[in-house]
Design brief:
A hairpin with a 5-residue loop joins strand 5 and strand 6. The protein is an alpha+beta fold and about 120 residues long. Strands 1, 2, 3, 4, 5 and 6 form a 6-stranded mixed β-sheet that branches. The protein is built from 2 helices and 6 strands.
């Protein structure tokens, strides 16, 4: 988790002030058992339409977080646990962030964080 936090915290610090939703795009790399995550941010979030994550206003671009897993299902589960734990302990989100999701670019998005409404 320390390596993940070391990667993601500088990305969060660079977010433009109008970003309210974050998504971790997950990718299967060409090397066996290797996956990566890219952080993207948007000025809008739509619970009914996962394409909101395609409308990016911030991206970590080629600055990716690499990790290993046996298959894409294990990679998704492993990443969701990792990001969830990090969000609970070592990552400080700006107050304006309403949602954080993750998923493979050609798959469904899983909500990791949803801001509590007052």
């Amino acid at each position: 988790m320390k390596r993940f936090s070391k990667w993601v915290n500088p990305q969060i610090a660079k977010l433009p002030s109008d970003i309210i939703a974050l998504n971790f795009n997950l990718y299967e790399e060409k090397w066996k058992f290797r996956f990566s995550a890219q952080l993207v941010g948007s000025i809008a979030y739509d619970e009914e339409n996962e394409d909101w994550a395609c409308d990016t206003y911030y991206s970590s671009h080629e600055n990716l977080y690499y990790f290993c897993a046996k298959n894409w299902e294990q990679a998704l589960e492993k990443f969701l646990k990792l990001a969830g734990k990090a969000l609970d302990s070592t990552i400080v989100l700006p107050d304006r962030i309403e949602y954080v999701t993750a998923g493979f670019v050609d798959g469904s998005l899983e909500v990791i964080f949803k801001k509590k409404s007052n």
